[in-house]
């Protein structure tokens, strides 16, 4: 299959014609639409994702810009896309990151899908348009760029989870679990001090440059961020703070209610069940990015564990990318809608939670028809 990128659009057009869809009556728009689906139903390596980020920026210069906000241990750039309609005023924002665990390939695939949907929907959907006007979306498709690149090397590296920094003196293994390395109860529970283990938390909080990069961005933006969402797999969970069984966030009930709303919205798409839970019940853990985000004052903080429930585990087949992304998109949108409505029509927020669960189902059915 031909995949030399000049522009995603061009390549996809070529793929489409190979398949014999060269109907002279069909508009270019239709061919793009068909072929985009093709792109978003496959996993892409880091080179392709970087190319894709450039294409997104180039093709949507009025709403998309990119920003390099850190470098990995192996000196690769950590890049996010900022998406939103420009405004003279300081905007509220939403954070989403994917690919902090290398082998969870559905996560970067979801970030790509999410960006594409946002860019497609805001032109026609008034709600999405309003959110693009009031909010900026800061989306990192791959946080753990070294680990993700490593997981693409060959079959024996496919299940790599951690970063790629060498262990401390006396330990010959590589990698820190970046989602045990944040400065939130660091090193206390559900973490390993053995650098050969999958859940090795590092030598100290934020010892890893990837963790530090995300931390710096969150610190800088904490006043503006309404929601923090980090994407993982697998297990079909919506997890919220805290990982430590002895502390509850002040808005525990709100987090639970919004999480349940998201799970309901997800179920309405393809019938998949997501369990809403805090990790103190699921598996206590420390150094989590979601806990750090909540601790610095970001009110809504969630970890999504996407499909499946252990049939394929981390090796989710490509034909399940689309349904997984479709339902997760709606779940994430539920949270973002809630955050948006609460900030911009504050007193109505309680009511709109329920309302949006219903409306979202309608939105889904129209989205999946295209
Ligand atoms: C990434 O994927 C493309 C398309 O399959 C391939 O041509 C390229 O060699 C890959 N790059 C790396 C670094 O694996
Ligand atoms: C990181 O980004 C800079 C600025 O765009 C670029 O010059 C550099 O080549 C990038 N580094 C890597 C390793 O891709
Ligand atoms: C896979 O890549 C790793 C890292 O380069 C290498 O050590 C290993 O020998 C490779 N395994 C196979 C089966 O090619
Ligand atoms: Zn994970």
Give a short overview.
The chain is α/β, with parallel strands linked by helices. The protein is 42% helix and 14% strand. The chain has one domain: Zn peptidases (Aminopeptidase, 3-Layer(aba) Sandwich), CATH 3.40.630.
Shape: globular
Order of helices and strands: HHHEEEHHEHHEEHEHHEHH
- Kindly report the spatial arrangement of strands forming the biggest sheet: 1-2-4-3-5-8-6-7
**Annotation field: number of helices:** 12
Q: Bin the strand percentage.
A: 5-15%
Class by helix and strand content?
alpha/beta
Number of strands: 8
CATH class: Alpha Beta
The CATH superfamily appears as Zn peptidases
Poorly predicted runs = 1-34, 354-370
Percent helix, as a range, is: 40-55%
Through-space gap between termini:
25 Å
Q: What are the distinct ligands in this entry? A: 2-acetamido-2-deoxy-beta-D-glucopyranose, zinc ion
Mean pLDDT: 87
């Amino acid at each position: 299959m031909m995949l030399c990128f000049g522009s995603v659009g061009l390549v996809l057009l070529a793929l489409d014609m190979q398949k014999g869809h060269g109907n002279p009556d069909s508009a270019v728009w239709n061919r793009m639409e068909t072929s985009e689906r093709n792109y978003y139903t496959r996993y892409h390596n880091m080179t392709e994702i970087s190319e894709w980020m450039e294409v997104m920026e180039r093709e949507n210069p009025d709403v998309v810009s990119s920003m390099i906000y850190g470098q990995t241990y192996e000196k690769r750039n950590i890049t996010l896309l900022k998406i939103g309609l420009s405004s003279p005023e300081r905007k509220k924002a939403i954070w989403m990151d994917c690919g902090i665990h290398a082998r969870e390939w559905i996560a970067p695939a979801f970030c790509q899908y999410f960006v594409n949907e946002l860019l497609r929907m805001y032109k026609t959907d008034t709600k999405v348009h309003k959110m693009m006007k009031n909010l900026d979306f800061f989306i990192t498709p791959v946080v753990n760029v070294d680990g993700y690149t490593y997981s693409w090397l060959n079959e024996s590296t496919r299940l790599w989870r951690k970063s790629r920094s060498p262990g401390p003196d006396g330990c010959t293994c590589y990698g820190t679990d970046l989602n045990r390395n944040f400065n939130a109860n660091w090193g206390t529970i559900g973490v390993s001090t053995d650098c050969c283990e999958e859940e090795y938390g590092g030598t100290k909080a934020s010892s890893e440059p990837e963790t530090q990069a995300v931390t710096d961005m969150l610190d800088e933006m904490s006043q503006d961020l309404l929601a923090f969402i980090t994407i993982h797999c697998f297990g079909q969970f919506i997890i919220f703070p805290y990982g430590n069984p002895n502390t509850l966030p002040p808005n525990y009930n709100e987090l639970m209610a919004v999480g349940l709303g998201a799970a309901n919205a997800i179920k309405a798409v393809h019938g998949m069940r997501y369990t809403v839970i805090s990790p103190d019940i699921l598996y206590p853990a420390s150094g989590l990015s979601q806990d750090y985000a909540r601790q610095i004052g970001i009110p809504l903080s969630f970890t999504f564990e996407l499909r499946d429930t252990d049939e394929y585990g981390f090796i989710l087949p490509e034909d399940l990318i689309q349904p997984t992304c479709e339902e997760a998109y709606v779940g994430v949108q539920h949270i973002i809608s809630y955050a948006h409505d609460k900030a911009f029509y504050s007193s109505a927020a309680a009511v709109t939670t329920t309302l949006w669960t219903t409306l979202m189902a309608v939105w889904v059915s129209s989205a999946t028809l295209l």
